Fold:
Amino acid sequence: MTIEVRVPQLPESVADATIVSWHKKPGDAVARDENLVDLETDKVVLEVPAAAAGVLKEIKLGDGTTVTSGQVLALIDEGATAVPGASAPAVMAAPGGPATPATAAVAAATAAKLSPAAKRVVEENKVDPKAVSGSGRDGRVSKSDVVNYLSAKDPAPAAVAPASKTQAPAPVPAARGARADQRVPMTRLRARIAERMVQAQSTQALLTSFNEVDLTAINELRARYKDKFEKQHGVKLGFMSFFTKACVEALKKFPTVNASVEGNDIVYHEYFDVGVAVSTDRGLIVPVLRDADLQSFADIEKSIANFASRARAGTITMEELTGGTFTITNGGVFGSLLSTPIVNSPQSAILGMHKIQERPVAIDGQVVVRPMMYIALTYDHRIIDGREAVLFLVTVKQCLEDPARMVLGV
Structure:
């Protein structure tokens, strides 16, 4: 019995998706619920599992194809057994299109981790992709790797003009490595990030205010309780829970920072859904801590650790990336000392954390060395005045420098 593998129902806010990569080829055995192909949307990568066990009979749509809900991606011969060494049918490049040797070469190149530019060179020169050593991450083969392979395989002699009485011999240029360019389309996530950032810059009156925080008290708390905290809750006590709690306290005092603009209206959110920016190989995504004011320090640390691991594995759900009333981003993990983060529209503000650096500071007339961090608040000046932005940062600073405030609510 032939089973159709279809694009799953996409969320209402997503019109279509793009096929990223097939994990099986025609003729391969598949198990029920085994991931067959990855589909990329504007926000997440969706896995499409096999509906039944059997053999992948045919792939209808190749990598890079844009698809919509319900489209047929492949056919599975349910209950069949894969035959070792059997030739697999070619992969079709487009909906309804016939299989061709070129598309089969693309499928082979994909299996060999070739970049899009490298695939084209492989096809044009009829190169076995498995013979090319990749210099990229995880052995990924670039166009320059293929060009270098071809040059080593069949080097062309340099042309030298003959000398004459009036002309000196032309100098032979020194050997140089291949100077190749790669033109690679943006991933859907990267294109969406670019669109959102440009939208925020062009529709909001963005301004950034700065302050600095002495993290001595936080460091002492973490040093005193980190082992007991991890043993009791099964997660490390990091900085993000302190910053999240401090921001919630500040948002309660200055509700406009937690608001958003819709047309000529200001929407004041009476809940605190804090987005936490997470960096992945595909780009920056912002999963949301729902009702952060009701979560404990342990809950926040567990949620952030869970978001980070699943974001990098590509298993974050669309719902977890939707909404949010305020965002925190930490460039300090990469060594950033100071930056001006861009608001995650339609939110109105974002807090930027930075590198913790020991610096001399004056305290009670004495110069002492303390672990200091610059913090930045970028905000929409249309609804948030400078006074509110500055006092928001002051509140965050006070909560972090005297953590008891967050416990006592003062």
